[in-house]
Write a structure and sequence with these properties.
The chain is α/β, with parallel strands linked by helices and 274 residues long. It has ten helices and five strands.
């Protein structure tokens, strides 16, 4: 229902998966089935599934039609990519105290359905990390993507490992949403909310926290708000994170200039500015 001219098609998805395989990269789909569904609910035909007062973003998971609708969305992604792995989101959901347990049960049910179909579901962890009692509703075979968009919190990889989740991925962010250049070095997301500032070298720091907790998988995340960003500034954070994950540099090395020379054949203005 959200496809329009110029948007990714099923053929595009299959092409991306095959091109990734050629390069040793697993390409898999990610969607959202609770919050962040504004691309559905800003359309009149879906608005009867919108939860009120959520800025067009959130599905009413109390509605008896919600599960079927969510599964339709997830199945379309799973079919288009054909990788057997599908990330169903679940992040940044606005919940009143009495809605937290129903939210967890709903998201857990979607994941359980996928597991029973032989698919591998994944979720972002922010909602269940902020209210840790909600973990009890989730099958431990679900992949947990430990998303640290809000600044460095060293405890979370160990927490999910101790909870018995078998697949945990540490997911630092290069903090690209607000930054114009060399994103990782800019203040944390939503400054008005006084979130923890993102500091230099947090990418390596979170990977190191994961390693200490026995979590040896990670995914470096980037969020683009399409306001004309210059991509040059973000590549140093990505390259440094990748080199660290592969054991080729030490955490907290000051090496942006060196990495830029490797990436681009010369130093760019961005490291010098920041």
């Amino acid at each position: 229902g959200v496809i329009r001219r110029g948007v990714m098609t099923k053929d595009d998805a299959k092409w991306a998966v095959e091109e990734g395989k050629r390069r040793g990269i697993l390409v898999f789909p990610m969607t959202n089935v609770v919050g962040h569904m504004e691309h559905f609910f800003r359309q009149e035909r879906y608005r009867d599934l919108l939860m009120e007062n959520t800025n067009d973003r959130q599905m009413n998971f109390f509605d008896p039609r919600a599960e079927e609708f969510a599964m339709r969305v997830v199945h379309e992604f799973a079919d288009a990519f054909g990788t057997g792995v599908v990330h169903v989101g679940g992040d940044e959901t606005t919940l009143k105290p009495e809605e937290k347990i129903p939210y967890a049960k709903f998201l857990a049910k979607i994941c359980k359905n996928l597991l029973e179909e032989g698919l591998a579901p994944a979720i972002w962890d922010d909602m269940i990390y902020m209210d840790q009692s909600l973990c009890e509703y989730f099958d431990r075979r679900i992949s947990i993507f430990d998303w640290c968009y809000y600044g460095h919190r060293p405890e979370s990889p160990k927490f999910f490992k101790d909870q018995g989740f078998t697949d945990v991925f540490v997911c630092p962010c290069d903090n690209s949403w607000e930054g114009f250049i060399n994103y990782q070095h800019v203040t944390g997301w939503l400054k008005s909310n006084k979130d923890i500032p993102v500091k230099p070298n947090e990418i390596e720091a979170l990977f190191e926290d994961g390693r200490r907790a026995g979590v040896l998988s990670g995914m470096l995340t980037n969020w683009e708000n399409s306001l004309g960003r210059n991509f040059w500034g973000q590549w140093t954070a990505f390259a440094r994170g990748g080199l660290y994950m592969n054991g080729r540099i030490e955490a907290r090395e000051e090496n942006d200039d060196l990495i830029e020379e490797v990436l681009f054949g010369r130093k760019t203005p961005y490291s010098a500015v920041t």
